Structures are given as C-alpha cells and as structure tokens.
dTDP-glucose 4,6-dehydratase (Polynucleobacter duraquae), 352 residues
Amino acid sequence: MILITGGAGFIGSNFALNWLADSASEGVVNLDKLTYAGNLANLEPLNNDLRHIFIHGDIGDKELVPKLLKDYQPRAIVNFAAESHVDRSIHDPAEFVATNIIGTFNLLESAREYWNGLNESAKKVFRFHHVSTDEVYGSLSLTDPAFTETDAYEPNSPYSASKAASDHLVRAWFHTYGFPVVTTNCSNNYGPYHFPEKLIPLVILNALNSKPLPIYGDGQQIRDWLYVGDHCSAIREVLTKGKLGETYNIGGWNEKANIDVVKTICTILDQLKPRSDGKSYAEQITFVKDRPGHDRRYAIDASKVERELAWRPEETFDTGIRKTVQWYLDNPAWVESVLSGSYRDWLKKQYR
Ligand code: NAD
Ligand code: DAU
C-alpha cells in the first residue's frame, strides 16, 4: 500500500486515478478531511476498485494517523493535504496554519514513529513525499531567471508562508532524524476535477454561465502552467527514483500572463461552444481589484528533475488547456454538483 493524504482534492484525486489506472500498482489508502475542496465525486471511477480505501479524517489527528499506519503498513506516504487557495489564506489564514503547518508536523511525527518501528528492509524502502509549491520562492521580475531548488525561500502570502514552513519541517526531519523524505515544488496545475475557485476552472464555468471573467489588477501576472497529469507523473518518478533529502522543482516551461490564459480559454470556447449571440466569450472579461500582495511572476526551472530523473511533461499548454476545457464541457454532472454544492450533501448523509 501507499498512503496518500488530500486525495479527494484536485491533484490528489488525479494522482489516485492515474496511479490505480495501472493494474500492477499497489493499493492506495486515501486519507482526506473532505473540506470544501475535497470531493468524493472525483474518486467515483474507483468505486469498485478494491485497491482504493478511502478514510475520512485529518492529517492532524494524533490517534487516527498512527492507527492507519499500523493497520495498513504503507511503504510510502504522499502528502497532498493542504489548504491551497491563496485568496482564502488572505481572508482567513488560521486553517492554513492548522493544516499546512501543524497538520504536516503531526503527520511527520506519526510517520517517523511508524518508520522507527519498521524492520531494516522495510525501513530502507520507506519514503515520505511532501508535495509543495513554487510559491515558497516568492515573486520574480520579468528578467529574473526561473526558480531553482537552491533559491532562497521568500514566501509572500499566508498560504505560501505556511507551505514554506511545512517544507522546512520536512527538511529538518531528514537532517535531524534521518527520516527519508523527498519534496517537490510544483508550478500552477490545471486539468480535470479542478475546483472552480482557481483561475482556469472559474473562467471556464463563468464563461459558460454568462458571468464576468474576473481578472485581478492589470492581468499581466505570470504563472507557469503544468497539466495535472504531468505533475502526477513527476511525483511518481520522484517517489520511485528521487534522492532522499532532495527537493525537485516541477514545471511545464509554460509561462503565461493571466490575461492571455483567459483569452485562450475564450477562443477555445468560441470554437467548441459558441455563444448564442455570436459574440466572443472575451466580451465577458472584467478587470477587478487586485489580490493584496499579488506575486508578479512565477517560473520553474525544471532542469534538475529532467536531468536526474528523465522526467518530461507530455502536454504543452495548448494541448492541455484544450483537453481541460473539453473535460468541463463533457462533465456537466460533476460541474452541476460542485456549483450547486450538492456534492457536500452526501457528506452530511454519510458522516453526520
Ligand atoms: P485542493 O485544495 O484541491 O485539495 C486539498 C485536499 O486536501 C482536499 O481534498 C481537502 O479536503 C484535503 N485536506 C485539507 N485539509 C486536510 C487535513 N487537515 N487532513 C486531511 N485532508 C485535508 O489542493 P490541490 O490543488 O489538489 O493541491 C494539493 C497539494 O499540492 C497541496 O499541498 C498544494 O499546496 C500543492 N500544490 C498545488 C498546486 C496547484 O496548482 N493546485 C501547485 C503546486 C503545489
Ligand atoms: O504556483 C502554484 C500555486 O498555484 C499553488 O501552490 C496553489 O495551491 C494554487 O492555488 C495556485 O496559486 P495561484 O494563486 O497562482 O492560483 P489561482 O488560480 O488562484 O490564480 C492564478 C492567477 O490568476 C493569479 O495570478 C491570480 C489570478 N486570478 C485568480 C482568480 C481566482 C485572477 O486574475 N482572477 C481570479 O478570479
């Protein structure tokens, strides 16, 4: 077994689906608190797959996590669980400290105790993979080189500060206790099952629902976009071949200004599902107040993971964004349940 945390969220669910698509893969124990961002509908394709075991719970639960480790004896942990939305972290940072820092601390401590109790051969193969973000490196100017693994940490938002803190804990557990960790710092993901609070799914769904497409500030902020399936393949490579104690930057070499991302989505929608009035979806673009402390540019230098682990993304931005728009058009039931909030009803029923 492997244990993943946060596996009902956007990246974690894609990871579980990709992992279990290979019939030879080990089983997955999936621990998720099912916050507003956790959605069991993402995992529906695994409903009849006995290799997938879903556990509703918190990475910070000091009784549950040791029990899961004892019961399932995972040979690896991949930690996706986090509060992940920058805007939410600005309004209400407390949950970010609770899950991203304290939760990761509790998970590390439980995992270290479990690892200490393993026999020598199990101890050797075990690893703890921490999934993190490029935002820990802060913001770049237009002419700065892309982030490398040796760049200083300069987090600017409550979200990125909490992720930076978790990265430091993971690093320290390796250096102090010899606990076998790897960390990946990835750029902006997009793809299926992305919760529509983030730019790309928000714009696709607002466009289709005749709502404004909100662009913060001047829309010239740059993000480096990676298709979620490529992030999942990078995690698999690092989990299998990554060197313990190392960090790997993961990115798609796809730097785009926000306004260009939004215009690209509008052009694709104009082709795939033209507006009934014949106008372009770009008419719905609306510039709104900027995000406080908005980082100007992120860019990932992914040469280390390419050189050392021979990982390469399969999708370009053009192919990945087209697939993504098509996925949202092809999955109206998922979209409806998320937009109406009905995906949470099952939760109430099951877990009251
Ligand atoms: P998400 O918000 O879609 O999903 C997070 C999942 O974690 C949800 O299912 C939620 O229920 C669960 N969760 C939250 N708190 C928990 C807790 N205390 N215990 C157990 N589960 C909990 O996030 P995502 O976009 O899938 O991101 C996954 C990870 O990847 C995060 O660590 C994030 O920092 C990192 N990351 C995300 C991106 C991106 O572009 N989305 C890029 C780089 C790194
Ligand atoms: O870089 C990796 C990070 O990417 C991850 O660690 C985070 O978990 C993930 O949420 C994402 O953070 P961003 O803040 O970059 O993503 P978001 O989709 O919220 O915003 C992308 C850009 O678009 C950013 O510059 C803000 C802008 N934006 C966002 C929203 C939601 C808008 O202009 N309008 C919007 O309505």
Observations:
- The two ends are 29 Å apart (CA to CA).
